[in-house]
Design goal:
- The chain has 153 residues and is α+β, with helices and mostly antiparallel strands.
- The chain has six helices and four strands.
- The longest helix has 17 residues.
- The protein starts with a helix and ends with a strand.
Length: 153
Amino acid sequence: MIRHYLTAIAVALALAAPVSAQKATVETVIDAMNAERASHGVAPLHVDPKLSAAAADRIADMFDGHYFSHFSPTGVQPWDWVEQEGYDYREVGENLALGYPTAPEIVDGWMHSPAHRANVLGGQFDEVGVAVAEGSPTRPYHGPTVVAIYGKR
């Protein structure tokens, strides 16, 4: 009986914890972006499997190559990842983040950068793929590392 009571208290405390205290996941990053879009009267982004695969490939390449940049050391550019997955686009954009521990902090960081803000709020984009990895592809920075690739067909 006491164990059930303690479990109920633990669950209640976890549910009452602010969202900002939760670690960043693909879903929480997309939710935070869509909350910003809604507050600015912009339609939500929808997850696209090809953009998601491109973001996952992109983040894996950063970790394999130990870099954090929009362009890989071998010259691969953001849209190359999208094309490799067969996403036929009219517009494509990319946001990167490193070291922001929660989704609201990640998106807040993007909102304070004109180019990243334009991607988050860009009416030209209606689809997104996001990848989140623990840690950092470079030292001495700390993770998580986030890639968001925006698209419009």
